[in-house]
Specification:
It is built from 4 helices and 5 strands. The chain is α+β, with helices and mostly antiparallel strands.
């Protein structure tokens, strides 16, 4: 626990921030589907901003694979990045990302650290 806190502090002090990226896919495939609720959006405002708010800026469906596209991204704190990965990241045993479902659309959440 202390090591996690020190790691987060060191990264936060670097002046750079992680990014949250959200991809939309037409179907969930074989992945687990997790329905998003209002509580999810309240707990993770960055997720809300990308899926429903001002950071939503969908690209065209990818060339050659029209089943996925990036819908947006935003800076998040290291603590929020960790919370998003804990909540919506890949399973620890399978390393498969769950699909998040909201209003009939399926999303994958990825965070990237500088």
């Amino acid at each position: 626990m202390l090591a996690d806190a020190l790691t987060l502090y060191a990264h936060e002090s670097s002046g750079e921030q992680p990014m949250l990226y959200v991809m939309e896919q037409t179907t969930p495939g074989e992945n687990v589907v997790v329905p998003l609720t209002e509580q999810d959006f309240e707990q993770h405002p960055a997720l809300d901003a990308v899926i429903r708010g001002k950071e939503r800026n969908p690209s065209a469906w990818e060339w050659g694979d029209r089943s996925q596209r990036v819908i947006g991204g935003t800076n998040v704190s290291y603590a929020e990045s960790r919370a998003l990965q804990d909540a919506y990241g890949p399973g620890r045993e399978t390393w498969v990302y769950p699909h998040l479902e909201y209003e009939g659309a399926y999303y994958l959440v990825v965070t990237a650290w500088p």
